[in-house]
Amino acid sequence: MKRPMRSVALLVVIALLMALAIWFQRVRETSFALGTPEDESLYLKSGGTVRRLSVAYRTLAADLYWIRAIQYYGGTKRLFGPDGGAAAAPAANVPESRRRYDLLYPLLDLTTTLDPRFHIAYRFGAIFLAEPYPGGPGRPDLAVALLEKGLREQPDKWEYMQDIGFVHYWWRHDYEAAALWFERAGAVPGAPWWLKSLAANTLAKGGDRQSSRIMWESLRESATIDWLRREAEKRLAQLKALDDIDALQKQVADFAARTGHVPTRWNVVPLDPSGTPYEIDASGHVRLSPHSPLFPLPVEAAARPIS
Questions:
Q1: Alpha carbon distance 231, 32 (integer Å)
Q2: Long-range CB pairs of 267-271, under 8 A, 24+ apart, other chains included
Q3: pLDDT tens across 191-203, in order?
């Protein structure tokens, strides 16, 4: 009899403690302002210091910093909406430094200092860094610096050379530099044969959509990481959308020339490669919907049609 009574008494005490904890939490929330989760800081900035402190746990520490880098990048990108640029500006109480991805490169630098052969951190990190603001910090220079850091550790890693070429091509529009890096990657034993032809094509027709398409198709075929393959597929879909918009715009111009009226709506709504309807405004301008997962499209300098 005593044992059941003790159990009941214990349950009553636990319930009272939980109720008291909830009451204290309510008092705290109503009496004190909550901290801003976006106000981030990096307490350890020196890779050498972190390496010394982590000692035998450097790989684990690198994994943790890599996870934090991904969370930081994704969290900052979400401040601008699900597509990192399609929505409104972040709330006014978000610190300016948090809006600029200031900690992204230091986090990636720490990750790759702790584990200098962290293959994914170099390749993903470079794409994160190169993405134009607000979808990323818009720092292709830091993307190249990160990949060059990887090359200092593994000088025969042709994938990093290829990625540097992509950064120069897609984000910096420096086609000579891109061609040089593709050529250098193609000279590494074991590198795919198409890198040398890609170098020649880039130098001859750098910037047109066909060479951009070849570049992303090559990356899709050689990617060993699913995320990178999906990124290449998204870029290819964006190039297809640019072709579609050109064709639709020509149809709009032909209709206006025949009838003297600019169409402002579709008889049959055309869809972009993601299945989202293309938009047409009052002046007859065809555009990708900001609700499309392909939004925003790449700048035309990196994906112009073949002349």
A1: 44
A2: 270/244
A3: 988 888 888 888 7
DSSP H helices, 131-269, are 140-153, 158-166, 175-186, 194-205, 209-222, 226-259
**C-alpha neighbours within 13 Å on the C-beta side of residue 246:** 12
Instruction: Give CA–CA dist 160/99, Å, rounded.
Output: 28
Helix (H) or strand (E) holding 287: strand 286-287
Spatial separation of the C-alpha atoms in residues 193 and 166, rounded to whole Å: 17
Three-state DSSP class for residue 124: helix
Helix axis angle, 226-259 to 209-222, nearest 10°: 150
Q: Which residue has the tokens 């210091």?
A: 49
Q: Which of 208, 185, 164 is nearest to 197 (CA)?
A: 185
**pLDDT tens digits along 213-257:** 888 888 788 777 788 888 889 999 999 999 999 999 999 999 999
Read off the pTM: 0.66
Range in 219-223, 283-287, 294-298 with the lowest mean pLDDT: 219-223
